[in-house]
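Lab notebook page, bench 4
Experiment: in silico fold of construct C2
Operator: M.H.
Input chain length: 541 residues
Purpose: comparison with the prior construct
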Amino acid sequence: MADCVTKVELSISCTDLLDKDVGSKSDPLCVLLQSSGKDSWTELARTERLKNTSSPSFSQRLRLDYHFETVQNLKLGVYDIDNSSSDLGDDDYLGGVELTLGQVVSSKTLTRPLQLKKGKPAGKGSITVTAEEIKDNRAIELEFEAKNLDKKDTFGKSDPFLEIFKKGDDGKWQLVHRTEVVKNNLNPTWKKFSVPLQTLCCSDLERPLKVDCSDYDSDGTHDLIGSFTTKVSELQKAGGSPVSFDCIHPEKQKKKKSYKNSGVVSLKSCKLLTQYSFLDYVMGGCQINFTVGIDFTGSNGDPRSPNSLHYMSPDGLNQYLTALWSVGHVVQDYDTDKLFPAFGFGAKLPPDYKAAHHEFALNFNPTNPFCQGIQGIVEAYRMVIPQLRLSGPTNFSPIITHVASIAAQAAQTNTASQYYVLLILTDGEITDFDQTRDAIVRASRLPLSIIIVGVGPADFKAMELLDGDDGVLRSTVGEAVARDIVQFVPYRKFKDSPQASLAQSVLAEVPNQLISYYKMRGLEPPKPAPAAAAPAPAPKS
């Protein structure tokens, strides 16, 4: 792939979407996909889900690399989301549009009618896409609170949230961030958040900003409490002490001469930060350590049977090996020694074949489970298959806990030098679901990402619950994940696609997961070691 020219950020809004929910409007989300050849598409990013609205403006921007020399075919799909699963297969499709990134970039803003499929209009609804080049790697971190907000709810206080808008080049206000809702509170404090400086104000510290404080209503008819205008140069005054703004409701101000405000919003803190990219860490020397766990439970079927998921086809492959090749070939480039630990679970081992092992070295060498490259893992897999007796149950927590313990040692160095990716290849439902989610919640505070590829035809509902894209995964005692570290993909989605499509899909979240960990820890990229000076030439005799 040629070097990307630049990064582009897309902002998305829709109007007049189809209503799929009985008695209310849809709960839309927009997903961005890029063509990966033929009829295959790979998800790049998705917006947040908004509740109960037919004309959403999404605050989550969608970022991608722009290559001038390539036609980048994109698809934007809008879905009505009615469950917590990250899989869009069981959600209502409200329509989408196919276009190229070149069309969006050259138009800057593009509005298209939604289609249910190519050439078939959705009947109603349109989507607007605005593109902006990313030239600045700074972000701004803000923390707001408010006092004495107007009471808007009849049987309670208000449920306030903030929306921040920047003034576009066309003079219109563009949404750039939406905070969480604080329930039933006239004196709320919102969580600290950061926004790329480019997103917030086009890196122009004097560009006008507008902040709306509104009362959230579940039917989508949010009531404005009040607004104020400001700019980043003014917000920066909150470096030492809070900066306060009168929250003004324009209608109330017109009606009452004695009107002062509808509450006061204060900025408690404001910091400019450097936003590091995945390449900043990798090029600084951060190593990505790859570990594989393979499911050898009985539900896979006898490997000697052509119906088994572990059966070797005449070309020497099966779904397990195809998934391993696809993902491993990408990841191995980021690890200098190319030595990868590989484990199996759910099988009985020679010579006694007594109890099932929930974590064993694939090369049968527990003191040195490392394989040389992806080829080494494949060779170890082919060697052990005839020697195992498939058993059960399907326990994930032992291998997650094992890799997490190694990641924990790396975390103690307080450097951004080692990150871990665990690939689990499995055919079915988890037996130790509670222990697994506890292990994932603990691991979310470590330099670790977990990729689960589901092979075979099983219903992988439990896996989707572990893929906490919306942050709902909690431990058995209610502790939430610190960050999203699990990506689940069913292999069957990519059965007829090029191997690269599977790799793109399962590895898509790893760069942001790595960045989110080091950002959470406040760790900067390692400084690349300076090149050794060339020895001085020997004097000529």
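Observations: The chain has twelve helices and 26 strands. Residues 279-521 form a domain with the Rossmann fold fold (CATH 3.40.50.410).
Next step: discuss at group meeting.
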